[in-house]
Amino acid sequence: MTGSRDIDCVICGTCVADILVHPVPLAKPVGGGRLFQVDPIEVVTGGIVCNTGIAMRRLGMRVAAASLVGADAWADVVRTQLSAEGIDTTALEVDPTQATSTTAVLVDPGGERSFAHHVGAPQTLGLDFMQRHAALFARSRVALVGYVGLLPALEPVLAEALTMIRAAGCTVALETGGSGGALADLAPALPHVDVYVPSRDEAAQQTGLTDPRAIIDCYRGHGAAGIVGVKLGVEGTLLSPAPGAFVEIPCVPAPGSVVDTTGAGDSLLAGLLTGIIRGMPLEEAGLLGAATAACCVTGLGAVAGLRSLEETWKLACGVLNR
After folding, report:
1. How far apart are CA 49 and CA 69, in angstroms?
2. Do 176 and 197 form a contact (C-beta atoms < 8 A)?
3. Which residues of 74-97 are buried (b: 16+ CB within 10 A; e: fewer)?
4. Which residues contact 258 (CB under 8 A, 6 or more apart)?
5. Which one, of 130, 143, 132, 141, lies nearest residue 6 by Cα?
6. Hey, which residues does 116 pair with through a beta bridge?
7. Residue 178: pLDDT band by 50, 70, 90 thresholds?
8. In what order do the strands lie in the sheet with 247-249?
9. 50, 301 in Cβ contact below 8 A?
10. Nearest to 50 by CA among 34, 36, 63
11. Parallel, antiparallel, or unpaired for β 113-118 and 102-107?
12. Which of the residues 125, 129, 180, 218 has an alpha carbon 20 to 30 A from that of 27?
């Protein structure tokens, strides 16, 4: 891992203001013309920049955010929350032609959720944005870029953007969202990615495959040489540190009732990257990721349930020492 830099991870891509509505029945349509009671509606942050960024801060990492927001009140929500967590927001730019990305998150009583999403300003984030912030990447040990699938201006030039980041001495991690994006855009970028662990649904959309090992082999066939994996929900995570090598990471039991699964995948990635940055063996880093996700689902929204590194690692050790 690259040494002597003052930022552990710069997270570049989707940042969102989330409006949380709970509980909402999702098993059947609510129907038109109805009024139904919910808990107090909250406005929080979301998207990979906020979710993974805040999770990594709670785990003790030095984090910078790089994204685009609109000239609106939602941007103030995002900037204020990130700053309150100690995240560097100097690369959070305003695009006056776009609205801040927003999502209405509808959460059912069991914690499952559906999203009404407006992509907003991050859809204009492209290679020129990355080039403007080359100095920030040069200060960071890791750069996390996402979500592929929700960054239409960046995806066609993704390989060029990641090549530039790597040339600055950054380890590169990539994350997916939405549909996961097209393999045609992803494949040229994979040789420039050091960590790539999409969800099974997004990986299946990209590759047309459902078996996790076959998915990983597909990415290897397109030049992925770093850590590749697939997040498998309650089945855990399958990681591959090298061609033909696999590490199975189980789920870590939630340290409380499951309230909301929003942000669980982003939290898993936060723990995994934190472990990698700290030089942990891959199994331990994966378990730290699983434990971070386990904490995440105990709170409403993506960050309310997150805990410190010490508390989170205790959960991971409960699985590691079995």
Report:
1. 12
2. no
3. bbebbbebbeebebbbebbbebee
4. 110, 111, 297, 298
5. 141
6. 104
7. confident
8. 88-94, 63-69, 7-13, 140-148, 171-176, 195-196, 227-231, 237-240, 247-249
9. no
10. 63
11. antiparallel
12. 180
Contact partners, residue 190, CB within 8 Å, separation at least 6: 196, 219, 222, 223, 224
Tally of CB atoms within 10 A around 234: 6
Is the bond into 219 cis (omega within 30 degrees of 0)?
Answer: no
Q: Residue 53 contacts by C-beta under 8 Å, 6 or more apart in sequence?
A: 9, 11, 63, 65, 82, 85, 87, 270
Residue 135 vs residues 87, 127, 169: alpha-carbon distances, Å: 17, 14, 11
Alpha helices in 3-126 (DSSP H): 47-58, 73-84
Give one DSSP letter per residue of 249-272, joined into a string.
EPPPPPSS-----TTHHHHHHHHH
> Residues near 38 by Cβ (< 8 Å), separated by ≥ 6?
21, 22, 23, 24
pLDDT exceeds 60 at position 8: yes
- Distance of alpha carbon 34 from the chain centroid: 35
The alpha carbon of 10 is separated from its chain's Cα centroid by a whole number of angstroms, namely 12
Residue 320 has pLDDT above 90, yes or no: no
**For range 235-243, the mean pLDDT:** 98
What tokens appear for 103 in the block?
């999502």
Domain 7-26+40-320: give its CATH superfamily.
Answer: Ribokinase (3.40.1190.20)
Per-domain residue ranges of the chain = 7-26+40-320
The model scores a pTM over 0.90: yes
Q: Name the packing angle between helices 73-84 and 47-58 (round to 10°).
A: 20
